[in-house]
Amino acid sequence: MKYLAKGNKPDLLSVCEEMGVEVDQSSKVVDIKKLILNSQFYVEEEVKIILDRVISDSEEQERNTQKEREERSKQEEKEREERMALEARQHELELRKLELSQQNQPLSDESGRRVEIGPKIQLTQITTKFDEKHEISLYLINFERKAHRISSSAKEGLGGLPVGGFTSRTL
């Protein structure tokens, strides 16, 4: 009788089904055990064998289910990584296309002549912040000098640009 203790309710219900004992699904475990023991088909060795087989089958089914979940999870993770890598590659390609389209892009001025535009430099990189305490004319003179230096550097292949941006000492 102690061997029945290792079976849970679904296992005991399966044993009852194989023995031909009718039992209600809502019955308690204790009642199911009593029905098995009091059955006319009860033979202890056969019930032990049936219970062991039912328990091993349910454990194997649980292992298979767990394995399938893990495989599905790995597959989903792999697909997610591939999708992210593809998106990153597409983003890089789009950035590269933008860079190539903006480099040395010819434009037309008002007279219809083609004008070449060099690499774009942001205004905040070449200018210092204007302090209202100082005179505006000094700020404008510095701006003109920096603009001239950059335009001549662009013609020389950006060789004259200082690394790390402009400071008041580079003027």
Short description:
The chain is mainly alpha-helical and 171 residues long. The chain is built from five helices and two strands.
Can you give a write-up of this model?
Residues 58-84 are annotated as: Disordered. The chain has five helices and two strands; from the N terminus they run H-H-H-E-E-H-H. It has helices spanning 9-19, 29-37, 44-102, 123-126, 136-155; strands at residues 106-108, 114-116. The chain has a two-stranded antiparallel sheet with strand order 1-2. Helix 1 (9-19) packs parallel to helix 2. The protein is rod-shaped, with a radius of gyration of 41 Å. It starts with 8 loop residues before the first helix and ends in a 16-residue tail after the last helix.
Classification by helices and strands: mainly alpha
Distance between the termini: 97 Å
Average pLDDT reading: 78
Q: Can you give the helix content as a percent range? A: 55-70%
- Please list the strands of the largest sheet in the order they lie side by side: 1-2
Oligomer kind: single chain
Radius of gyration: 41 Å
How many strand elements?
Answer: 2
What's the number of helices? 5
Roughly what fraction of the amino acids lie in strands?
A: under 5%
Main sheet?
2 strands, antiparallel
Secondary-structure element pattern, one letter each: HHHEEHH
Q: What is the approximate shape?
A: rod-shaped
The residue ranges in which pLDDT falls below 50 over 5 or more consecutive positions are: 158-171
Region (Disordered): 58-84
